[in-house]
Structure formats: structure tokens, C-alpha cells
Amino acid sequence: MAYKILVLKGDGIGPEVVGEALQVLKTVARQSALELEFKEAMVGGASLDAYGTPLRDDVLKAALDSDAILLGAVGGPKWDNPAADKRPEQALLALRKNLNLYANLRPVKAIKDLLAASPLRAEIINGVDLVVVRELTSGIYFGTPSERRTGSAGREAVDTLYYNEAEISRVLRFGFELARQRRKRLTSVDKANILASSRLWREIAGEIAAQYKDVAFENVLVDSMAMHLLRRPRDFDVIVTENMFGDILTDEASMLAGSMGLLPSASLGDEINGAGFPIGLYEPIHGSAPDIAGQDKANPLAAILSAAMLLEHSLGMRAEADTIREAVEAVVREGYRTPDLAAPGAKMVGCKAMGRLVRERLEGGEP
Ligand code: IPM
Ligand code: MG
């Protein structure tokens, strides 16, 4: 049976990095007699330019109909006009919402050979191995009203941070289940001293924690969490938090690994695909980096590691996913670096060469 993978390269460096990830997937498919059927479509700014909408209905339909989706990045200065009512990012939000991908997994692991690439001291980040589970389909990203208007005080704007019980408990349960498969520690992050939505979150987190007595549980306020991530990142295993806190904390956490160019993500829900696993959307956490787009300078490793997560979570191929991770680590160990990880003495390579090196390692060749 062939599995259907929808490929949404998107904007900026999206096409370059996804191009490498795709080739890695094809290599693995060839090696494991796995049949993958790729379908490509435009999304974000590219789709806005070509069709006047960031996400066409038939692309959304294709997404709902696929076993997994691989996405590059969306957005760029070209589409940044604040007055525009159509923006590339809407495509991403619509995909997440319509596919009900409420659990966004963002693993952060310090790679030994890249400790020097982080702005933080090696002794602080050595051994970091955490995963942020970010709630992805509710909170201030989706609450209504969300609008700009004119009131008695002149120009005003409002956004709404809404959460209900079901939305909070399903993502926390997801986190506890994940913690059980890892080091059995879970940190729930909120702002319960200020926000009503966070107080509900904390209440429910406590109730669910009582059902997972084997998992060490703590509540941490988001502002202290921002600090702890830099001071003692090794202490954390699974961190569960609401949508916007997760957005902010994962950009911060990416610095523990050295570069945004290294961090993959998986967005999962309860919908099961033809392989018997959750349908997922896989994307690097980095953006479209328009400043380096089209110059063969982007780091494809986050996209390649996202493809590894796709194999693991949506196709149940953990061993094959690990092979990709090992290939990535091997290439890095050999000293190859894209410009985002530049260091004295490194063997500098571009996006294409980095992708090729990973594939060569997968095929058993020396880089
Ligand atoms: C992310 C990004 C997106 C988000 C943007 C591009 C809409 O920052 O995936 O972290 O805010 O969720
Ligand atoms: Mg973000």
C-alpha cells in the first residue's frame, strides 16, 4: 500500500530545505521497500501570489486526505502589509485547525558536536533532551473576537485567549503519555497568577496529574520558565503549555540546540491515517528566512529531522527515523556545517551539499 504524503514547500527557504528532506525520504523509502506517493501543492505567500488565497480548498482537502504532510515555511516581507486581510500564515493556522492537530511536539536535543554553536555555555546545555508539547489549535491564536476597530478611545484592537476543558485536558494527556515513554517528568507552564485561562489550565493539569502518579509533575509560571530554560535546561523532560507560550518558549529553546535550523516539529491529533497512526503535519520550527532564500545557504537539517519525525509518528517507522537521525549526527560529527552553524575550522557546505551528505550516510557511504 502506498502512503500519501502531501508536500507543501511554501515560501523563502521552504522549497530548498523541503527538497532535501524529500530526497532523504525517497532514499529511506527505497531502502525499506516503502511506497510513498508524493503530491505537491502551493501554500502561503506562493499560493497567495498564484491564486489570491494562502490555502486553496482543494489543497486543504488533499491535506485531509493524506497520511502525512511535510511543510517548509510560509511568509516573508513581501506579504507583511499589516492592512492586508490575507496573509501567508493563515494557511498554517487553517491547516492546524482543520486537521485538528492540537499537539505540537518540538523536541530539543543538544548534539554533542554542536555544543559550541549555542550562545550558551557547553556545561549548561550538554545533555539537554526535552520536548515541548505546544497546544496548537486554540488559545489567543484562535479566540474571537480578534479584531481591530475604532472605539471611544480611537483605534483599538482585541484578541481573545479562550480555552475549554476538553482542549486543555487532551493536550495534557498527550504530554503525560509521552512523559511515560521518556524520563517521566512533566512540567506544565502557565500564567496562573494573572490569567483565568491559565488557572483553569492549572486546575485541570492537577486533576490529570493525579491519574499519572508515576510521572513527576510540576507547575511553572511562564516567566520563570523562560529563565529556567537558560539556567537549568537539563532538568526538563516534557513541557506542556498553551499555544502562544509554546510559540515563544520554543524559539528560546532552539538556542539550546545551537540553531533554529536544527529543530523539527510534529503536529498531531486523534485522526488516524491509512497506516494506523496519527495524521501529522511535519515542519521545521524555523521561518522562511527570506534574506537567504534561493542562495543555497539554508540548513536543511530541521526539515530532514522533520521527515524523520514523519516516519516515526505517522508511519510507525521508528527504526528508519533513527537511521536518519544517526546520519545527521554523523555528518555533523565529521565537521560539516551550514552557515547558521559556522565555526572556525568547520567544513562549510550549502543546503544541497548538506542534504547529499546525509543521504550518502544513509546509503552507507563516507561523507
Ligand atoms: C511557529 C510559527 C508560526 C506560529 C507562525 C509562522 C504562524 O512562529 O510555528 O512557531 O506562530 O505558530
Ligand atoms: Mg514560532
What would you say about this model in short?
With 367 residues, this protein is an alpha/beta fold. The protein is 40% helix and 23% strand. The protein starts with a strand and ends in a 5-residue tail after the last helix.
Describe this structure in words.
This protein has 367 residues and is of the alpha/beta class. It folds into two domains: 1-102 and 263-367, Isopropylmalate Dehydrogenase (3-Layer(aba) Sandwich); 119-257, Isopropylmalate Dehydrogenase (3-Layer(aba) Sandwich), CATH 3.40.718. It has twelve helices and 14 strands. The chain has helices spanning 14-31, 45-51, 57-64, 89-98, 122-125, 165-180, 196-209, 222-231, 243-257, 301-315, 318-333, 351-362, and strands spanning 3-10, 36-41, 68-73, 103-109, 129-135, 143-151, 154-160, 185-190, 216-221, 238-241, 264-272, 278-284, 336-337, 347-348. Strands 2-1-3-12-11-4-5-10-8-9 form a ten-stranded mixed β-sheet, with helices on both faces. A two-stranded antiparallel sheet has the order 6-7. Strand 6 and strand 7 form a beta hairpin. The longest helix has 18 residues, at 14-31. The two termini are 33 Å apart. The model has no long low-confidence stretch (mean pLDDT 96). It binds 3-isopropylmalic acid and magnesium ion (MG). 3-isopropylmalic acid (IPM) is lined by residues 75, 89, 92, 247, 285.
